[in-house]
Design a protein that fits this description.
363 residues, UDP-N-acetylmuramoyl-L-alanine:D-glutamate ligase, eight-stranded mixed sheet, two-stranded antiparallel ribbon, 14 strands, 18% strand, globular
């Protein structure tokens, strides 16, 4: 199918008039497609203000860490392909036409059996399908409106992000508590909710939802905070101090630089810095040798499960695991002082908090 034909077919599904809030059409469509939205982990973003910016930021960080990340946002400015991106690249028009042609037969089946699929629902289903076909390692979805009854709320929602909430569309409620109740519906059972600063009544609703769903609540100002926010070229630069910013945890020497799993906000353990860092000298920055900057991202990401052997050969958790913060081992070079930092040598392991091995240490 040509791109123009796909856009014309989508246009016939506007304007959108919903008789009642429900997910019947989306559930039927996802079932026919074999639940493609559950084939990859997802970050689900809602809120009154800032959800698109937050979704783009999360996608950019994940892509910088080497994860192929699909991003679904709305609305678009120029072309509908802007709504579906993979690592910052909008979907090609040819690919859009091919994916929509694959989807169209299922959409028409739901039209006949359940009810007419809306414009936004068709695009959401297209995002589910195209990200699974790509395939992506992570999906980031920004809610269209609300949360509980939004078409995007069929994703697994490994991490639910709730941006600042205020009075929104009148359909969502007339008070902040009512609006929050609708938006907190994206918090899934046993998952994680990352919440920006909210009004007191909104926090009460979110906490109650997390208790009902046995979800982990990470609240700004209590569990994490924005340590630094400064203007930068083309936007803003920010540094976040959170649960995973454990200085010196999971650090090791490879080639001529230190590598790290986390972005430290204070100098590494024992105050040892590398003698030189090619990553930083190229202007990219490195979390291992320079703290508190979002652009200084090491190539080894805490989002990615490590594949290097560990002392006890235990399997490490995958992305978003609850024990991500439990890093017990620190890897050091075989000698504490390195006259030639570019020279490779065997490595040694110590428990975190123990002093590094010295040149006279026996192993």
């Amino acid at each position: 199918m040509r791109f123009a034909d796909a856009v014309a077919e989508l246009g016939l599904r506007q304007p959108e008039h919903l008789p009642k809030p429900d997910l019947d059409r989306m559930r039927a469509l996802a079932t026919l497609l074999a639940e493609p939205q559950l084939t990859y982990p997802t970050i689900h973003v809602t809120g009154t203000n800032g959800k698109t910016t937050t979704a783009r930021l999360a996608s950019a960080v994940a892509c910088a860490h080497g994860l192929t990340t699909g991003l679904f946002t709305s609305p678009h400015l120029d072309s509908v392909t802007e709504r579906l991106q993979v690592c910052g690249e909008p979907m090609a028009e040819e690919t859009f036409g091919e994916e929509f042609e694959h989807l169209l037969a299922y959409v028409r089946t739901v039209d006949e059996q359940v009810g007419r699929v809306t414009y936004f629902e068709a695009l959401t289903a297209l995002a589910y399908l195209s990200f699974a076909d790509a395939p992506v390692a992570l999906g980031v979805f920004a809610v269209g409106m609300g949360g509980t009854w939004d078409a995007t709320n069929l994703v697994s929602g490994d991490v639910a992000v709730i941006c600042p909430i205020g009075l929104d569309h009148p359909e969502l409620g007339s008070t902040i508590a009512e609006v929050t109740r609708e938006k907190a519906g994206i918090i899934k059972q046993g998952k994680v909710a990352v919440v920006r600063e909210q009004e007191a009544e909104a926090v009460e609703v979110i906490e109650r939802r997390c208790e009902e769903q046995i979800a982990t609540l990470l609240l700004e100002g209590r569990d994490w905070e924005i340590a630094e926010l400064t203007p930068a070229v083309g936007g803003q630069a920010l540094a976040i101090r959170g649960l995973h910013a454990t200085p010196g945890a999971w650090r090791w020497w490879r080639g001529d630089r230190w590598w790290s799993w986390t972005a430290p906000t204070t100098p590494p353990l024992h105050g040892r810095w590398p003698r030189r860092c090619p990553t930083r000298s190229r202007g990219i920055g490195c979390t291992s040798c320079w703290a508190s900057s979002p652009t200084r991202i090491s190539r080894a990401s805490w989002l990615r499960s490590p594949r290097w052997p560990t002392p006890d050969t235990r399997r490490r958790s995958t992305a978003f695991g609850p024990d991500r913060r439990e890093r017990l081992w620190t890897r050091w070079p075989s000698t504490a002082s390195r006259p030639n930092p570019s020279r490779r040598s065997p490595t040694r392991w110590t428990r975190r908090g123990e002093p590094p091995p010295t040149a006279t240490s026996s192993w």
